[in-house]
């Protein structure tokens, strides 16, 4: 026959287990809601930008056009990043239902592995690159990155979705979902391939259109452009390391457990 203290202890354990289960359930629901809001927001932002935003054309025959149709919206890192963010949150939402959010699963499904890789390699560093670079240049001289002539055709809400919310949501994601970072060499290689391909792409656009994608590049001489591109690459790589560092601090216990399981 169980003693009163034993019964009380068992009841306390059960109550603690139930409260933990409820907490995890609420936390999981909020995380899924975050993924849903982000997926809808960025998907709609892409749709609206692609379908309704038409950049004005310079009517001065002696001036270079501000924009050229070659490459369309796909020549802008902001637009490409929005696609990355939408893809990431759609994958995260799918993982919430058919994958696993277990902190350190022994055999994570493919969708969970892809989700973790995508955030580490592209979603986090590219989002912070776009957000920080845009608002820094905007503060220095908005004409270098977002001329006033765009205000009538590019809504303020869309500007914040593509340049502000990308940072807000990806930082929230870093603190609410644990992910296993790939080997640093693997992650940085993927990021380098993406950023290197983009730099090649904007030079192709310049060759065929005669116009740099970003006005800031028009005012830089060749040596300055080289330094600018090198700084952007270095900054983006440092953001990858920053994301890994924050992940290791916020999820220190999970990182240690994952390392023990892999050994």
Based on CA atoms alone, the radius of gyration comes out at: 23 Å
Straight-line distance between termini? 45 Å
Q: Which regions have little confidence, pLDDT < 50, spanning 5+ residues?
A: 7-13, 59-63
Helices and strands, in N-to-C order? HHHHHHHH
Percent of residues in helices comes to over 70%
Features:
single chain, 263 residues, mainly alpha, 8 helices
Quick synopsis:
This protein has helices at residues 4-52, 77-98, 110-141, 156-176, 184-209, 215-218, 222-250, 252-262.
Helix-strand blueprint:
Blueprint: H1 4-52, H2 77-98, H3 110-141, H4 156-176, H5 184-209, H6 215-218, H7 222-250, H8 252-262
Helix pairs in contact: 1-2, 1-4, 2-3, 2-4, 3-4, 3-5, 3-7, 5-7
Describe this entry's structure for a reader:
It is globular and about 85 Å long. By secondary structure, the chain is mostly helical. α5 packs antiparallel against α7 (222-250). The chain has helices at residues 4-52, 77-98, 110-141, 156-176, 184-209, 215-218, 222-250, 252-262.
